[in-house]
């Protein structure tokens, strides 16, 4: 009787082990997920892996449990596709969404780069049926549009870097005691708009660049407030 009980216990343990192995195999094999199924793998059940989604792709981030598990700095990404939050920094409520509506091409490109990071560092576990993939795992028009927008953003960023490399940026420093200062080893500091930012970020920004004296009459160059026209350094607030 004792032998029979031990045999039954052994079989039960073997069955439990096989169930765990089967579960791990299923998770290692990429599959299609619903949002509801993915939500279970948010790290609150220690017997299950931790999964996250980005642009509809699912990754097993269990090896980063200290970051993605409960109490971790990235736990808000676990068990869901919160693609927008990778650039918005809004980790509550409506911010934890997979919608990228209204984001600039630079922001979209940044999210695509994050997806690349997860493909390189973690195990790909499948795709989420919904915004980015249909019920057969094929990319949707939305995903194709996002990837095209990201590609344009990358191209515009490279173009902007190439253009700005022709005009060197100012040197700068700041201290609590003396405040800020910009200066040029060669040329004169001027504020100039970065036109590419309109397409990249949806906003206009400026940078400090060093222009030669014969270039100072170009349209759009702004002298720092309180700085002499031909000063090679300027105090900034």
Architecture blueprint of SSEs:
Blueprint: H1 2-28, E1 31-33, H2 35-39, E2 51-54, E3 57-60, H3 65-68, H4 85-88, H5 105-121, E4 123-128, H6 141-165, E5 171-175, E6 179-183, E7 188-193, H7 196-201, E8 206-211, E9 233-236
Parallel strand pairs: 1-4
Antiparallel strand pairs: 2-3, 3-4, 5-6, 6-9, 7-8
Largest sheet: 4 strands, mixed
Given the C-alpha coordinates, what overall shape results?
elongated
> Poorly predicted ranges (pLDDT <50, ≥5 residues)?
none
Q: Compute the number of strand runs.
A: 9
Assembly context of the chains: single chain
Q: How much helicity do the residues have?
A: 25-40%
User: What is the chain-wise order of helices and strands?
Assistant: HEHEEHHHEHEEEHEE
Number of helical segments with 4 or more residues = 7
Strand order of the largest sheet: 1-4-3-2
Strand content: 15-25%
Amino- and carboxy-terminal Cα gap = 87 Å
Taking all Cα atoms into account, the compactness measure Rg is 27 Å
Structural class: alpha+beta
Indicate the mean pLDDT: 88
Structure overview:
The strands form 3 sheets. The protein has a 4-stranded mixed beta sheet. Strands 5-6-9 form a 3-stranded antiparallel beta sheet, with no helix packed on it. Strands 7-8 form a two-stranded antiparallel ribbon. With 237 residues, the protein is of the alpha+beta class. The protein contains 7 helices and 9 strands, in the order αβαββαααβαβββαββ.
């Amino acid at each position: 009787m004792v032998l029979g009980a031990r045999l039954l216990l052994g079989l039960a343990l073997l069955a439990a082990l096989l169930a765990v192995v089967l579960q791990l195999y299923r998770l290692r094999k990429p599959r299609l997920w619903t949002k509801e199924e993915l939500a279970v793998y948010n790290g609150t059940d220690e017997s299950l892996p931790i999964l996250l989604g980005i642009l509809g792709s699912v990754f097993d981030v269990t090896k980063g449990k200290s970051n993605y598990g409960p109490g971790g700095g990235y736990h808000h990404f676990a068990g869901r596709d919160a693609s927008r939050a990778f650039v918005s920094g809004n980790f509550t409520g409506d911010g934890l969404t997979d919608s990228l509506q209204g984001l600039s091409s630079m922001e979209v490109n940044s999210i695509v780069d994050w997806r690349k990071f997860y493909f390189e560092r973690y195990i790909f576990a499948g795709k989420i049926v919904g915004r980015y993939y249909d019920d057969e795992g094929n990319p949707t028009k939305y995903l194709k549009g996002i990837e095209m927008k990201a590609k344009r953003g990358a191209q515009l960023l490279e173009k902007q870097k190439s253009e700005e490399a022709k005009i060197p940026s100012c040197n700068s420093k700041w201290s609590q005691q003396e405040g800020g200062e910009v200066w040029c080893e060669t040329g004169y500091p001027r504020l100039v708009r970065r036109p590419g930012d309109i397409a990249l970020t949806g906003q206009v920004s400026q940078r400090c660049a060093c222009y030669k004296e014969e270039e100072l009459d170009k349209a759009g160059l702004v002298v720092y407030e309180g700085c002499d026209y031909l000063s090679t350094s300027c105090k900034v607030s």
